[in-house]
Amino acid sequence: MKHYLLFTLPLLFSCSTPIASSSLTSIDSPSSVPTVSSAQAEENVVDVFVFMGQSNMAGRGDKEKSIVCEKGHGYEFRPVSDPTTLHAIEEPFGVKENNTGINDGTKKTGSLVSAFVESYYQVTGVPIVGISASQGGTSSAQWQPGGGKLEEAEARLSSCLDYLYSLDDLAIRHIEMVWLQGENDAGNEVPYATYKQNLQNIVDGMKSKGVEHCFTIQIGPYMATESQEKHDLYKVFHANQIRMAEEMEDVDLCSIKLSGVPESMMHDKNHFYQEAYNIVGTDAGKNVGTYMKEGSMPSLTPYSAEDDAINQR
What we know:
- The protein is of the alpha/beta class and 313 residues long.
- The chain has 8 helices and 8 strands; from the N terminus they run βαβαββαβαβααβαβα.
- The radius of gyration is 18 Å and the shape is globular.
- The longest helix has 21 residues, at 274-294.
- It starts with 8 loop residues before the first strand and ends in a 19-residue tail after the last helix.
- It has helices at 21-25, 55-58, 113-124, 149-165, 183-187, 192-207, 228-247, 274-294, and strands at 9-12, 44-53, 74-78, 82-88, 128-134, 168-180, 213-217, 251-255.
- It has one domain (43-312): SGNH hydrolase (Rossmann fold).
- Strands 1, 2, 3, 4, 5, 6, 7 and 8 form an 8-stranded mixed beta sheet that branches.
């Protein structure tokens, strides 16, 4: 079993807009935070997550159909466009966060993040402060030390932590990353050992800035009707992601739903309608939340037609 260290950092908290201090300080009463110790009961806590990867992390869905993250259940820190406050989580998550380091233009249209954050809150009672660090089309090689993207993700996390440290009556419980990337590498037949080392380098870089653990989401399929060859290559990568999570001490796979969704949930060869992002985000958030409470990842289940009920709520 992989072990997980819980820690708390006392912070300073002050009013900020557009999230007023009263909104943040009222998100949880002490009794509604199941994983917070009695010593922490009078403090508000948040978990910080950096959402990293390529286009399916960035999100190519429809914001109008996204899962709503309820008030007080999650916040976005925008280190590029507005590093002076917290914003309520909404889709498209991270659409304003473009600079020379990470730039997805206007391609972010709806992601899995809102569903992840809401589902995570339902399990833990702890809101997430999320940071966007994703760009479509990127390979794992482009996220290596010295290439600029990893350094930008590290800087975004550091900016968020500096801001949170400046607030009063708030504690950071966990600092984590979620990684959804590999379509580029799968299609280009990047060897297992190469990708594994690339991922380790990325995780090591983020850990140097405070991240405790990396949670990976299995990539989706490539449309077989577009290319059976690439569809098969993606299946090899799916197996490799399971193997990596088993072999790497600081990496855990948190959802395998996306790899099994039907082509009816895909609007092109390897991107998805919002319904698919809602399903995988809800699943991943629930599983990571359970990991936080119990110290181990629950058994992961593949997509089934029963998952569609998430989009009928």
